[in-house]
Design brief:
Number of helices: 9
Distance between the termini: 39 Å
Oligomer: single chain
Shape: globular
Mean pLDDT: 89
Largest sheet: 7 strands, mixed
């Protein structure tokens, strides 16, 4: 049986914090952990090596990943603007735990990624990944991974808390890294379900991109994209106009074009960078393809709350045992106007299953069977007792069928190889 333990401390001294949380988490666990995950605020960044060594010595494992954070999440609380150190432990009988560190390799024609673990197609695997936003190209890496290993879920977050490269800290066993990424592949009988709440609501009507290039959309549904934007704005009610002023306008890109209709959860939400009335074009914070369906979205606290509650509604039926929560550092008290919004709702939906997490500078999680780097999102890994085994090849085939084809026909090499991304 899977067992988990978690604890969080606000003690400003890292040793005192560890003295509080390690025994508390181990007591819930009922034995030595197979995996330890740790998040700590920037007040503890200088003590990263001591934290890693203490965790290894006192838990008996070197399967440790962790990182600095702008804010730490634990015990249904979100610690913002104060010291925080959270630890999360898992006993995973029969599961192979494969920690890894990813490094960026300079090449003549770009950069490559080294350190990716060997994961066979027939293996049932999930990946937790913590990456430094200054030094690791998470977006392009996930794009490649979606093509090379379709159906492999990746959940995690971009490390936060520092304003310049070299200041973040990542834990990889007892090593401390100041860049790249640290993660763990979990292979075997554990059911890790992803919940990715983007917190936006579609407005207006969906339209196919009929002319565009790169991230510039010239036409939507055969008309200039700016005309479609004006048409949508003219149809907003007073409440939607207020939401637009408060949260800005976003663009949703449909993930699965095979559906007859689209609703919340069917879109990958990206920012609207600008509109040019002279050319009639709009710019989106991602590349678009001809024929892809787009719909404008609004983001606000009410929409984010509603979206999270909707996605969490079936979670209690999954028999959750443990949770890792990666919430955008643009959420929290400043966005929702109340403390502990995401953490409290996740705790309630999971019957207070042991939880830890942090406020990330970008969140990783799958939508429609493909992994993406998100913003303003709450992404969570919900650990449940395993369901009936599903062959990885079947899952990969389903994900591949649902996903749009990648650009071109070339087959990229494995992520572990030092090839361009």
């Amino acid at each position: 049986m899977l067992t988990f333990g978690a604890a969080v401390s606000t003690a400003p001294d890292h040793q005192r914090a560890l003295d509080e949380i390690i025994p508390a988490a181990l007591a819930q666990l009922g034995g030595a952990p197979d995996l330890v995950v740790c998040f700590f605020s920037m007040e503890h960044a200088a003590a990263a090596t001591g934290i890693a060594l203490s965790l290894s010595e006192r838990t008996g494992t070197s399967a440790i990943i962790g990182c600095t954070a702008q804010g730490v999440i634990g015990d249904g609380r979100e610690l913002e603007g104060e010291p925080g150190l959270a630890v999360w432990m898992a006993r995973l009988p029969g599961v192979e735990v494969r920690p890894f560190a990813l490094r960026v390799l300079p090449l003549e024609d770009g950069v490559g990624i080294g350190g990716w673990p060997d994961l066979l197609d027939e293996e049932r695997a999930s990946v937790l990944l913590l990456a430094d936003p200054f030094t690791f190209p998470a977006d392009s890496f996930l794009e490649r991974l979606n093509i090379e290993q379709p159906g492999l879920p990746v959940l995690g977050g971009m490390v936060s808390g520092a304003m310049e490269p070299g200041k973040h800290r990542l834990l990889y066993g007892t090593e401390v890294l100041d860049g790249g990424a640290a993660g763990v592949a979990l292979v075997g009988p554990v059911d890790i379900r992803a919940v990715v709440s983007q917190g936006c609501r579609p407005v207006g009507s969906p339209f196919a991109v009929t002319r565009g290039e790169g991230n510039i959309v010239h036409e939507l549904g055969g008309r200039p994209a700016v005309d479609r934007l004006r048409q949508m704005l003219a149809g907003l009610d007073q409440h939607e106009q207020e939401l637009l002023r408060g949260g800005g306008l976003q663009v949703g890109q449909v993930i699965d074009e095979h559906k007859d209709s689209f609703d919340r959860g069917d879109f990958l939400v990206r920012g609207l960078l600008g509109a040019d009335p002279d050319t009639g074009s709009i710019a989106v914070a991602d590349s678009v393809e001809i024929g892809q369906t787009l719909q404008f979205h609004v983001r606000d606290a009410d929409a984010a709350d509603e979206d999270l509650e909707l996605l969490l509604s079936p979670v209690s039926r999954w028999r959750p045992r443990g949770v890792l929560l990666f919430s955008c550092n643009g959420r929290g008290r400043g966005f929702f106007g109340e403390p502990d919004h995401d953490a409290a709702r996740v705790a309630a939906a999971t019957d207070a299953a042991p939880m830890a997490g942090f406020f990330a500078q970008g969140e990783l999680g799958p939508i429609g069977g493909r992994n993406f780097l998100h913003t303003f999102t709450a992404s969570m890994a919900v650990f449940c007792e395993p369901r009936d085994p599903v062959p990885a090849l079947d899952r990969a085939a389903e994900a591949s069928a649902a996903a749009p084809p990648g650009p071109g026909s070339e087959q990229p090499s494995a992520p572990g190889a030092p090839e361009p991304v």
